Amino acid sequence: MNDQMKASEIPLGSFWFWLIWKLATVCVLAVVPIIAFDDPQFNGPLRFIFVGIIYAVLILSNEELGYGQASDDGIRYRRYFRRQFVPWRAIASITWSTSHRVDFRLRQGFLFRRTLSTQSFGSRFSPESFLEPPEVVRWLQFAKPEGADGILLEGPGL
Questions:
Q1: Over the range 98-130, which residues count as b (16 or more CB within 10 Å of their CB) and which as e?
Q2: Beta strand 65-71 pairing with 115-119
């Protein structure tokens, strides 16, 4: 195994992806009411329903996104501003569609708080990005930290 696999912290997601997504959401949240209330086609309650639906979709899309680091004792991450910690025994499964997007399904939590999604920009998409497991999965298989025994690993390339 290479030296990075032996490192004490494995990066999860990207701060820059997280920040750009959050800023884009804030911009859209600011623009939607302007469009809805300036357009004469939106009359009465229709404009409030439109704004409410857009707000709900944007808020829910932000609820799962985070970034952080994995270490021997668990995952330290941020969804918004506060840093949080989840031990390995609290994670039910890890799924991924590419090596740049990893979803952690927690054993407990409320609705959208049961999943932590981490994503990074990564390099150009290639067949390898779909076939190779993410770094955190390769590290888990190698390091076998305490409490990670029962985690289900699901994704292409495993």
A1: bbbbbbbbeeeeeeeeebbbbbbeeeeeeeebe
A2: parallel
pLDDT, tens only, 63-108: 889 999 999 999 999 988 899 999 999 999 999 988 888 999 998 8
Domain spans of the chain? Answer: 1-158
- Contact predicate 134/128, CB 8 Å: no
Among the listed residues 120, 134, 117, the one whose alpha carbon sits nearest the alpha carbon of residue 61: 117
Query: Is the pTM value of this prediction over 0.70?
Result: yes
Q: In this structure, what token pair is assigned to residue 90?
A: 């609290």
Strand partners for 69? 11, 76
- Calpha distance 88→93 (Å, rounded): 10
